[in-house]
Amino acid sequence: MENVTIRMLAERLQLSTATISKALSNSHEISEETKQRVLALAAELNYVPNPYASSLRKKSSHTIAVVIPEVADSFFAEAINGIESVAQDKGYHVLIYLTHESFMKEQAILKDFQSGRVDGVLISVTTETTAAAHGLAQLAKEIPLVFFDRVCEEVTAARITTDDTIAAYNATSHLIAGGCRHIGLLSASRQLSISNRRAEGFQQALAAHQLPLTAASVLHCSNDPVATQQVLQTALQQHHYDGLIATTEKLATAVYQACEALSLNIPGDIQVIGFSNLSTARFLHPSLTTVSQPAFDMGKAAATLLFRALKSSSFPLNEQQQVIPSSLIVRNSTKAH
């Protein structure tokens, strides 16, 4: 669907483009009746004002957008550094948009991009983003778009990911090598493809080592830290896990807090692995065994693809896929070495 323009509104209402423009800007020169007609049609056709239209006809905005859930997570902080290392070399500005894991906020941000504010988009979707991929599919047709880390599988677009299934398999196997037999996987989302891939690797490792998959094996947590603590403490008391894999940085921290509250010793009572790029992981007590993701490299690779598409309209951006391996860094929260 093509973008709705002032000219299209003018033709539909049989008014001049000048009248449409003045009505949209609430000019006193236009009658209230005409303003309401214009606004009603603009809303019906999902018209988005383009304040950059005249300049963009001649040149680009020299700005790209990075849409991420948060910056507190060290993965995204490192990814931004990788992105900016490329953007600065190209003379581009980087706008950071935070969704705070909100599907509705992500929708609003994507709609804003229809105005021509940015030349391209790098995005890691929210934990709430579902297959009903709102404006993502349409946006990918209009401007260059690259997924990194968290992707929406139903949208045809370039993607930079890591080997989540293999990483989870290796993490689970490491716990098993350390003597764990009742392992739990803490998942952040039922929708995210990376959460599902990590769960898949976890299940494959259990099967390979002939360990049962039970209803308690995968524990789904929310974005609410208080609710997550309650869920974790209840699960630790009821199911007596001897190993846990936290699939996000926040969940790894939550495990330490829950174990402290229940006086559980790590790794004596329970061994812990986190998917985390925390530079402080080695300073935790005990130091945290982590699946360390190549955040900087993923951000750099995503930006590199985006700028190739900005340089050449014939570059097949949507066909590009790249998987960058992660690594397991063994520390003192697990027993196998």
Automatic annotation (TrEMBL):
SUPFAM superfamilies, per the entry: lambda repressor-like DNA-binding domains, Periplasmic binding protein-like I
Record's keyword annotation contains Cell cycle: no
InterPro entries recorded: HTH_LacI, LacI/GalR-like_sensor, Lambda_DNA-bd_dom_sf, Peripla_BP_I
GO molecular function, one term: DNA-binding transcription factor activity
Every HTH lacI-type domain range: 4-58
Signal sequence segment: none
Domain of life according to the entry: Bacteria
Keywords in alphabetical order: DNA-binding, Transcription, Transcription regulation
CDD domains assigned to the protein according to its UniProt record, in alphabetical order: HTH_LacI, PBP1_LacI_sugar_binding-like
PANTHER family: HTH-TYPE TRANSCRIPTIONAL REGULATOR GALS, LACI-RELATED TRANSCRIPTIONAL REPRESSOR
Protein name listed in UniProt: Transcriptional regulator, LacI family
Organism: Chitinophaga arvensicola
Lineage of producing organism: Bacteria, Pseudomonadati, Bacteroidota, Chitinophagia, Chitinophagales
